[in-house]
Amino acid sequence: MKKCDVLVIGAGPAGLCCAIEAARAGADVILIDENRRPGGQLFKQIHKFFGSKQHKAGIRGFDIGIELLEEVQRYEVNMLLNTVAYGIFDDKTVEIVKDERITDTIQGKKILLATGAIENPVAFPGWTLPGVMGAGAAQTMINIHRVLPGRRFVILGTGNVGLIIAYQLLQAGADVIALVEAASKIGGYQVHASKIRRAGIPIFTSHTIKEVKGNMQVEEVVIVQLDDSWKPIEGTERTLSADCVCIAAGLHPSIELAQMAGCALGFSSELGGHLPLHNEDMETTVDGIYVAGDIAGVEEASTAMEEGRLAGIDMAQKLGHLSKDKAQDKKEKIRENLFALRSGSFGYLRYKAKLNIIQTMEAIKKNQEKKQWSYK
Amino acid sequence: MERKLQERKVNNIVCRCEEVTEQEIRDAIRKFNLTTVDEVKRLTRAGMGLCQGRTCGSLMEKILSEEINKKVSELLPLKKRPPVRPIKIKLLAKKERESE
Amino acid sequence: MNKTADVTVVGGGVIGCSIAYYLAKKGADVIVVEKNKGPSFGASGTNQGACPLQLFEPPVLELARQSLKLYKNLSEEIGYDIEYDNVGALVCSVDEKQYSDMKKHVEKKKKQGINVRLIEREELLKLEPTLGENVVVGVEEWESCGVNPFKVNYGFACAARRLGARFLFSTEVGKIEKDKDKVTSVATDKGKIITNFLVNAAGAWSPQIGKMLGLVIPVKPRRGQIIVTEPTPLNKRWRCISDADYLLTTAFDLKATEVSKDKRIKLGVAGVYLQESTGNWTIGSSRDFADYNTNVTMQTIRYIAKRAIKFIPKLKDVSCIRTFAGLRPFCYVDGLPILSKVDNPQNFVIATGHAGEGITLAPITGKLISELIVENKTSLPIDAFSFSRFKNAYLQNLG
Ligand SMILES: Cc1cc2nc3c(=O)[nH]c(=O)nc-3n(C[C@H](O)[C@H](O)[C@H](O)COP(=O)(O)OP(=O)(O)OC[C@H]3O[C@@H](n4cnc5c(N)ncnc54)[C@H](O)[C@@H]3O)c2cc1C
Ligand SMILES: Cc1cc2nc3c(=O)[nH]c(=O)nc-3n(C[C@H](O)[C@H](O)[C@H](O)COP(=O)(O)OP(=O)(O)OC[C@H]3O[C@@H](n4cnc5c(N)ncnc54)[C@H](O)[C@@H]3O)c2cc1C
Ligand code: FES
């Protein structure tokens, strides 16, 4: 069994930043990720970033990743890659498998769960046909493996992910036939949407995919218009010829390990669904177990990084590596950054949702002891 | 035509691992007045597959919420147990060692 | 608002629901109170659903035999497929030293009228190539079955409801009111139920119900952990294979597990390996006392996995997709069920202590308890399971 001060599960932006902050303060940190390369979603993002200047907007996700990795090395974080954390047990022990053959137990005084998010499936007839895939899978193939999974794409969903994937597909030389969006408005940022429009790709709002047809794989995509209550309008079907459907219907937090650890859950549709309740230092209802990044609410790499830092600093403080004042200073700066990142019309909704999660957590903590039945 | 569409929609597969259809799920919910996704799983096998509901869990929540007229926020997600990824029995059996 | 009922059953597990069904069939007006959101959130939803007849000993054996008979036609009777699966049962040993015990086991079972057959190593391996080289001897028998425990539980509940039984879920019994020597009503967090009879089918939680009436019910939760695998091709002959250790030590002999120096035996790891018709294996199980904790622990899972590979080596390359744990209602005085009225209050009935055998025994338990309440006599003798058997044990305990 290995022991450490801080165990971080997931080496995306949130996990990396937590590991860096905790290690910088002097904690002994182990960071694990199931992939062969660290970075989580970051390395798939070859496009320029959204967010404010200070948050490296305009820099490619790829480059941010490289920068973070250098810091991880500098502060001697012990990084285990190709390593799955398959369970979390009592006494903050985590069971791992490395390279599909070495098993071990790691106990952390503090644990960060930074496991990211899972793509939302959409089940229309034919969704199990080869050629229907999640945006994440498509992104991995084109940006990391450099292969195109098809030639003619229909994309479902116009959040940032859908818009970006469309653009990346174009860059990779594929045909994007159409984007389909159930809501009446495009979900993602205008900058991304206008790129798509400029390329002359139709975006069908108030539409959904009714069915995908094909013998052995996707051949045709039938889309249909939706009325105000999201019911299909008969007779508005149209058939598109395509060999690939990319589903970008949003993500939801990957909370399995948090559930296993017994963390109380909250819900926020702005943040992707069920997520572990946490306080303003990212600690969950279970002492010493923290969450940061998409697991704590699906947002952006920039917020994930700040949340990771916040958790790392709080852990370092509680482990005695940082004075209270010093930690407080750092935390305040980060909170300001987070506030700035959560501005604008989308951001403000997320800010409110986050606040709500923190308040629910406080209320639960208060109520925990006095669970009193009134027997009538 | 309309009827045929309806049929197609409900025979749509929700859980790919266990090949459970939307209709089977709706039937089970109605027959047994189910109120939790864990129960839907027990009686239909949806969510019992290799991915343990990573793919179909959220779809099950949506269907259940429609059937019982509750918001997804009022439902709890599927209960989770180790392992979060499938793991070979021989690896479970070993401790801090390499398996051959 | 107050509700009234002939019989109130506390606990919506397989035992409570079976009782409700057989009572409703006799025309009783039944309310089942269950603190969880549905049935099967207790032990009844965390087991293997194996009913291996040869593992039963008198006095429970007769109950098991009758229960298996009821199971045969249950799907038809309640109009819902409980996935009755005629898997038989093989008890198998990987320890030379157990050979003579297994021979004795066969003789005993034959005397009990169970149609068992001893099978030597070579034949075992020929009939079931998935068994490991180190098996020593096996005993097969084909009266046993497997069932889908969820479907049994929900099937009973649904059939009972059709016959008029009411189910109150998310409702917890917290207090019981008494007048002299009779229960008058049950108080829950959702209101009061005025009742003529009260049945305690609260499984591992049944002592808490007893306590509300000042009774000590000697039951405590005995945790069991299970591994579930991905599907594999179906075994040729046996899909329900038990470790001889289960029979000879861990399941029944509490002392033996306590004093053993072998950590595996101490944790009660000796299993039933059951392959469902879907091809998935459930690999059980363990026995320890951890209060009401239903987490799995890696140490125990490790022993279970290691032991399973000894019996069925090909499992080593099969993936585990889930683990789970549940709480058996275990009578720590003698390990037997408690199916009984008590002296005071007279209208209080206990139906628990089924330990690791409650799925097998559910149908017969429901039938007998319904007879006990409605007719005040039972079609099988149940004296061996009476509550009064504890009186001495208690006095000793207190002394
Ligand atoms: C297509 C797309 C475009 C985006 N564009 C932008 C953008 O321009 N700007 C921006 O700010 N944000 C963007 N985002 C969002 C951003 O990528 C995420 O918010 C961010 O990566 C979340 O970071 P994280 O650390 O929480 O999780 P992730 O980056 O998802 O990392 C989680 C890591 O944990 C690993 N893991 C999970 N479970 C386990 C386990 N049990 N054992 C071991 N490892 C495990 C995962 O494999 C993964 O590597 C985009 C997202 C997508 C999908
Ligand atoms: C790992 C394991 C493997 C097993 N394998 C097998 C097997 O293969 N074959 C077999 O025959 N048996 C097996 N068993 C045993 C079987 O599962 C149990 O004996 C059986 O489920 C007990 O049923 P029950 O209804 O008494 O208890 P439970 O199912 O636990 O039901 C009791 C119910 O009472 C409720 N309750 C408690 N207190 C209150 C209250 N105050 N108010 C309202 N409700 C309350 C609980 O919520 C619970 O739902 C196994 C058990 C375990 C743990
Ligand atoms: S899709 Fe349902 S369990 Fe995998």
From TrEMBL, chain A:
Entry keyword NAD: no
Q: Which residues form the FAD/NAD(P)-binding domain?
A: 5-308
UniProtKB keywords = Oxidoreductase
> Is the Oxidoreductase keyword given for this protein?
yes
Q: Name one GO molecular function term.
A: oxidoreductase activity
Xref: InterPro entries: FAD/NAD-bd_sf (IPR036188), FAD/NAD-binding_dom (IPR023753), Metab_Enz_Cyan_OpOx_G3PDH (IPR051691)
- Provide the protein name: Pyridine nucleotide-disulfide oxidoreductase
TrEMBL record, chain B:
- The identity of this protein, by name, is (2Fe-2S)-binding protein
Q: Which organism is it from?
A: Aerophobetes bacterium
Q: Residue span of the signal peptide, if any?
A: none
Q: Report the Pfam families cross-referenced here.
A: Fer2_BFD
Using the record's annotation, list all stretches that form the BFD-like [2Fe-2S]-binding domain: 13-66
- Highest taxon in the source lineage: Bacteria
UniProtKB/TrEMBL annotation, chain C:
Q: Which residues form a coiled coil?
A: none
Assigned keywords, A-Z: Oxidoreductase
Domain FAD dependent oxidoreductase intervals: 6-372
Question: Which Pfam families does this chain map to?
Answer: DAO (PF01266)
Any one Gene Ontology cellular component term annotated for this protein: cytoplasm
Top-level taxon of origin: Bacteria
Oxidoreductase as a keyword? yes
Transmembrane residue ranges:
none
InterPro entries, A to Z: FAD-dep_OxRdtase (IPR006076), FAD/NAD-bd_sf (IPR036188)
Molecular function terms in GO for this entry?
oxidoreductase activity
Task: Supply the SUPFAM superfamilies for this chain.
Answer: FAD-linked reductases, C-terminal domain, FAD/NAD(P)-binding domain
Query: PANTHER family given for it?
Result: FAD-DEPENDENT OXIDOREDUCTASE DOMAIN-CONTAINING PROTEIN 1, SARCOSINE DEHYDROGENASE-RELATED
Name the chain's protein.
FAD-binding oxidoreductase
Task: Record the organism.
Answer: Aerophobetes bacterium
